[in-house]
Write a structure and sequence with these properties.
The chain is α/β, with parallel strands linked by helices. The chain has 11 helices and 7 strands.
């Protein structure tokens, strides 16, 4: 499907993939403003989010990757610097494996490189929080207005503890493109990736950012953006 997409600026294209239950315009806001003066910034709504209406989430990551390929083709974008956090990072990693020729650089944050030993407990705790969240009428109304699709499906998907694609995130060996992993120091499960990924792939650069956790791009937007800019500029072809 063709994704609802906003584009600002001009120059080398950077595509930002938002976190779960956000949209292209409600996430990576600081980065959009930061990069738009020197780069072409592309912010799509992933399928089932914002105005990218779709209620079929049965093969979500692969379908999202195909959506991105179709969207890039529509906008005549051969290659992009791809940046994603959390759900956006999962989609970005899947896209890189399916369409590596479409990516100049890949930047990831908010993902697990290996399955935590207490994953079942972690997932149960998250499910309980999400059930309480759905009782908040004001919050539900906000997301109803933000998304044209049935966004609650993402909540229900998480009730199956096997929802997380560890088979994708624990293997970056085959990727032959520059990769940057940025994580906040506050999440020990995500910082583990800064050790694991470089051992798998010499193309991986890592950065642990202080005073941040899962949403490092919004918790420390200035530091995140400076590091991202340096990484991208170091790999722009003359």
């Amino acid at each position: 499907m063709l994704l609802h997409t906003e584009i600002v600026g001009d120059g080398d294209p950077i595509l930002f993939l938002h976190t779960g239950l956000q949209t292209g315009l409600t996430d990576f806001e600081y980065q959009r403003d930061y990069f738009k003066n020197n780069f072409k910034v592309i912010v799509p709504d992933l399928r089932g989010h914002g105005q990218s209406h779709e209620n079929d989430f049965s093969n979500y990551l692969e379908d999202c990757a195909s959506d991105l390929a179709e969207t890039l083709h529509y906008y005549n974008l051969d290659r992009v610097h791809l940046v994603g956090c959390s759900l956006g990072a999962l989609v970005g990693l899947k896209f890189a494996k399916m369409f590596p020729e479409r990516i100049s650089t890949l930047t990831l944050s908010g993902i697990f490189a290996e399955k935590p030993s207490n994953w079942s407990e972690m997932n149960r705790s998250q499910v309980e929080k999400q059930r309480e969240f759905l009782k908040n009428e004001q919050a539900v109304q906000y997301f109803d207005e933000l998304h044209s699709s049935d966004w609650k499906q993402f909540i229900y998907m998480g009730e199956d503890e096997n929802w997380y694609p560890f088979e994708e995130t624990n293997n970056v060996k085959g990727l032959s493109l520059p990769i940057l992993l940025m994580v906040g120091e506050g999440n020990k499960y995500e910082t583990a990736g800064t050790r694991i990924y470089p051992e798998m792939n010499k193309q991986v650069h890592v950065s642990i950012i202080p005073f941040a956790s899962h949403l490092v791009h919004s918790e420390q937007p200035q530091i995140y953006s400076l590091i991202l800019e340096e990484f991208i500029k170091s790999h722009i072809e003359d």
